[in-house]
Design a protein that fits this description.
about 400 residues; alpha+beta; FAD/NAD(P)-binding domain; 8-stranded mixed sheet; 11 helices; 20 strands; globular
């Protein structure tokens, strides 16, 4: 029997990935501590739709179903998308994906970040295997051989067989462990807003490649679209600050009025974009997951899905045997091997696509047009792409 003050795992960070990780580990039979500086903002159906939304892939839906939170998320305000339509402004080539071609009901769901965090937080508060330490902030950590100690800002201590950092792209814990991170800051920001168009979104995720970046229209449950438009910072700032009438016209032009005129918009916000890859995912009694380990360009909507696949892999690697050492080096290495390669390929793949489709060099424009048309004509290849994006 373990001492009362010894946890199998301590998870630091209660965002979507950290919360899912703590809940999944507790459901597998482990004793878990979850440390978070600020409790998530409560979600309410009467509130305006959160500007931060994510595209949830089938692999993430499956995880949420196992955690018994998907029904609450799905019934609250989740917009299914059954098709994805992508076209290139330079070459005019296009490609479309349909869930029916793969025998599925949908390709994924567009869900508010805050709704997912709310559902997970509610489940965590009712989970006997999780001890919540909130508000609390980690100020130091020590490796004691068989355990790792977390020192908190309230002079408290947490002792665990394994510490999991899910504390974001800047990850103070990653820095405390001296783990470097490579990558670069993109010369792009993401402009986000919710807009209403003349024609319905048809439960389709639309994306157009433009010289300045990508423009996505993502279907919301209330009939509007969430836009994510990657742009050079100065242009992003200009579009965020111009009057609404001018913005709606410029947005409609950029989208080629695919759904008719854009009729109205919510408030607009912008976020910087970056590529980040941790040099390693594990250290003695320590593992990185989610944005603390990797951050990718949002053009394919894979960011949070990659983090949730980290959760699946970590839970599988360390096992659910309550008598097993959750921080055993062999288990952590198994987790790192499985996830680091997939995340690295995804990050640099998205980076390459972003660079390719921003280019106006005519031979490249011609080549990418040929490539899109070829992929669109090859059904089995399209299904392979869908299966990879779905996490299968």
């Amino acid at each position: 029997m373990k001492p009362r003050n010894l946890f199998d795992v301590a998870v630091v960070g209660a965002g979507m990935v950290g919360s899912a990780c703590a809940l999944a580990l507790a459901r597998s039979g482990l004793r878990v501590a979850l440390v978070e500086e600020h409790a998530p903002t409560a979600w309410n159906a009467a509130d305006e739709v959160d500007l931060r939304v994510v595209a949830i892939a089938p692999s993430s839906v499956a995880l949420f179903e196992r955690l018994d939170v998907w029904t609450a998320i799905r019934s609250a305000r989740a917009g299914a998308y059954r098709r994805m339509y992508v076209w290139d402004s330079g070459s005019g080539a296009q490609i479309d994906f349909d869930a029916a071609d793969g025998g599925s009901a949908e390709l994924g769901f567009i869900v508010e970040n805050r709704l997912i965090q709310h559902a997970l937080w509610q489940a965590l508060q009712a989970e006997p295997g999780v001890s919540l330490r909130c508000p609390a902030r980690v100020v130091g950590t020590d490796d004691d051989g068989d355990t790792r100690v977390l020192r908190l800002d309230d002079d408290g201590r947490i002792v665990a067989r394994l510490v999991v950092a899910a504390d974001g792209a800047s990850s103070p814990l990653r820095q405390l462990l001296g783990i470097g991170a490579g990558g670069h800051v993109y010369d792009q920001h993401a402009l986000v807003a919710h807009v209403r168009t003349e024609r319905p979104h048809e439960q389709t995720a639309w994306q157009r490649f433009l010289p300045g970046g990508t423009l996505a229209f993502l279907p919301l449950a209330d009939g509007r679209c969430s836009i994510v438009w990657s742009l050079p910072p100065a242009e992003c700032r200009r579009l965020r600050e111009i009057d609404e009438t001018t913005f709606l016209q410029e947005l409609g032009c950029a989208f080629d009025f695919r759904l008719g005129p854009v009729l109205s918009t919510s408030a607009r916000a912008e976020f910087p974009l970056r590529l980040l890859l941790a040099e390693r995912y594990v250290a003695p009694r320590f593992a990185l997951i989610g944005d603390a380990a990797h951050q990718v360009h949002p053009l394919a909507g894979q960011g949070v899905n990659l983090g949730l696949r980290d959760v699946d892999a970590l839970v599988e690697a360390i096992g659910g045997d309550a008598e097993r050492d959750a921080g055993a080096v062999t288990s952590l290495r198994r987790y790192e091997r499985r996830r680091r390669s997939d995340n690295t390929i995804s990050a640099w793949g998205m980076d390459g696509i972003n660079r390719l489709f921003r280019s106006e060099f005519e031979p490249l424009v011609f080549a990418r047009g040929l490539g899109l048309r070829a992929v669109n004509a090859l059904g089995p290849l399209k299904q392979l792409i869908v299966r990879h994006a779905a996490g299968r």
